Amino acid sequence: MFGNGHVQFQGECGGAILQSYPTEGSNPLDLSDYVFVSKQLFLRMTIIDIKTKLIIAEKLVNEEEYNDQTIKDFLENNINTETLKSITTDGRKNYKTIISAIGAIHHRCFFHLMQNLMTPLQKHVNKLERKIKTNTKKITKNKEEIERRKQKYTPHKGRIPLKDTKRQNNKNKIKELTDENKKIRQENRNIKKELQTIQTNKERIQKIFKSKTLKQATRRFNTIYNNRKTLHHTFQTFLENMNKDLDLFLNHIENKDIPATNNTVENYYRTTLPRKHKRIYRTLKGLQKRIKQQQLRWTHRQVLYRKDNIDKNTKYN
């Protein structure tokens, strides 16, 4: 049934890749498998074989009918569990139980995991970058004001007489603005240092999934996990959640047939139903027709690697 027994399921399955529909607070990059028909939300469940990229099964499900039992039935009805080896999924909580019941290896998509980190972290990064931008503008404004005040009076040799209150006030204001700029520059240096630390820690986490051996991956994770209290709270929460199911994220390291991500199904969804087309359908029949046409194109291009024009009457066995 499968090229190597590995599917991706996304509300995708093959190696299966499995991805759920959008939930409140989820990142836009995770919304590959939904579509609206006359303002009613439908979810696409798709099973794709990892090795051949062949579409094994696909089904449109009404939002109200999309639940754990629907997913389990879809997988069991369309997969030969005797040849199935692994299913790669996103982070839907109950996938672990469903896939365990089927008897396949459950692998979590590294890309979706990193999105769980980057979504809240990027908000913090954006805030810091805005602060740098605001500070830089303030420094420029202060420098212009300092220059203006220096040109306000003719140069005076020696100390300014105490009785010359205007010059004294002008001098004090220049010093005040100069000191303020020094503080702002120091603040910017601290922010840049924090941004660099964030980038470094992000790269350290990414290296875990690029490890050559499971032992190396575990060591890299334990090193950063044991120091999590020194990191930004977003990293702390992320690492603590990751620790709960660490084994699900590292299957691809020792089994090269298991993909690190579910990019195959993501690419399938982007190709067959781009985001700009997700709200244009008025009937379910019209949507199903569109998907079937795109499945034919996908098979022609991605599975058979053919570049000639597609004959709509062609039937692939």
Key terms for this structure?
alpha/beta; 2 domains; 7-stranded mixed β-sheet; 317 residues; Nucleotidyltransferase, domain 5
Can you describe this structure?
The protein has 317 residues and is α/β, with parallel strands linked by helices. The protein folds into two domains: 6-109 and 261-303, Ribonuclease H-like superfamily/Ribonuclease H (Nucleotidyltransferase, domain 5, 2-Layer Sandwich), CATH 3.30.420; 116-244. It is 53% helix and 12% strand. The protein has ten helices and seven strands. It has helices spanning 68-78, 95-102, 110-150, 165-209, 214-226, 233-244, 246-249, 251-254, 263-272, 284-303, and strands at residues 6-10, 16-18, 34-37, 40-49, 55-62, 86-89, 105-108. Strands 1, 2, 3, 4, 5, 6 and 7 form a seven-stranded mixed beta sheet that branches. Helix 1 (68-78) runs parallel beside helix 2 (95-102) and helix 3 runs antiparallel to helix 4 (165-209). It is elongated, with a radius of gyration of 29 Å. It starts with 5 loop residues before the first strand and ends in a 14-residue tail after the last helix. The model is unreliable at 11-32 (pLDDT under 50).
Strand content: 5-15%
CATH class of the largest domain: Alpha Beta
Uncertain stretches of 5 or more adjacent residues: 11-32
Overall pLDDT level: 84
- Based on CA atoms alone, the radius of gyration comes out at 29 Å
Order of helices and strands: EEEEEHEHEHHHHHHHH
Quickly count the helices: 10
Roughly how many Å apart are the termini?
12 Å
Helix content: 40-55%
Global structural class: alpha/beta
CATH topology name of the largest domain = Nucleotidyltransferase, domain 5
